[in-house]
Design goal:
Length: 251
């Protein structure tokens, strides 16, 4: 049974796309067929992590939403880009990063119901084991859909008062939508913090398990989105933490 995993944060700047790229790559490297859909239409960017350049992309999620193409036609096999071999496969459906397309989405919106239909056809057409949805921050119709159809929702937050408050709102919405499984990931944690105390505080606050705690890493910052971190630094503590989160997904 294919699993749908939504990666979400209430605020921008939490490292959501980096998180999605690394976690999906980790799961695909274990021999699974994995898809990612970038539904952050107003501010797309995950394609850069997979070294997809403008000349490489001729169809996007936007084309599907505007009736120009099937979602499968906008799926790019990026397995070789991240060194995945054997049975594992990784596909990405990017959103358009053209200014005119972004402006059109912001002005006209789109039929959110099309996403659910597209996700189903993508999973079936590519025979996916896992589908990751990289969402737009905040709460919207698209967010509600992604949460509602997900087998697993991963909420990313930083140890920051605004993040704590926004995450509380999102957790409440997720429970109202009866999300099947909810996990928390704490990102950009200072090395001076007590990790076990932080885990306990967050789990008690939201009554949900913390799947991973990720340090604020200079190595990750220096990579500057030029590739997937866990591929370039497979033994790094950050990469090892992604492996731990992946265990929650494939269990």
């Amino acid at each position: 049974m294919p699993k749908v995993i939504s990666i979400h944060s209430y605020r921008g700047g939490t490292g959501k796309s980096n998180f999605t790229a690394n976690l999906a790559t980790t799961v695909a490297s274990q021999g699974n067929r994995v898809g990612i859909v970038d539904t952050d239409l107003p501010s797309p960017g995950i394609h850069m992590l997979f070294s997809l350049e403008a000349d490489d992309i001729n169809k996007t999620l936007n084309d599907y939403l505007w009736g120009r193409a099937a979602m499968e036609d906008a799926a790019y096999d990026v397995s070789a880009n991240v060194g995945i071999e054997g049975d594992g496969k990784l596909f990405l459906v990017p959103s358009s990063f053209k200014a005119d397309d972004i402006a059109k989405i912001l002005k006209e919106g789109y039929d959110v119901k099309l996403l659910n239909d597209g996700f189903r056809k993508l999973v079936k057409g590519l025979q996916l084991d896992y589908l990751f949805i990289d969402t737009h921050p905040g709460l919207s119709k698209e967010t509600f859909l992604s949460i509602a159809i997900s087998h697993i929702l991963i909420l990313i937050l930083r140890p920051d008062k605004q993040d704590y408050q926004g995450t509380a709102v999102t957790v409440d919405v997720a429970r109202q939508l009866k999300v099947r499984k909810m996990l928390l990931a704490i990102n950009k944690v200072l090395s001076s913090m007590n990790l076990e105390a932080l885990r306990q505080k967050v789990e008690e606050t939201y009554t949900a398990p913390v799947a991973g705690i990720f340090p604020l890493s200079e190595d990750l910052v220096q990579l500057a989105s030029e590739g997937v971190f866990c591929v370039k630094y497979p033994t790094h503590p950050v990469s090892q933490e992604f492996s731990k989160v992946a265990q929650h997904i494939v269990a």
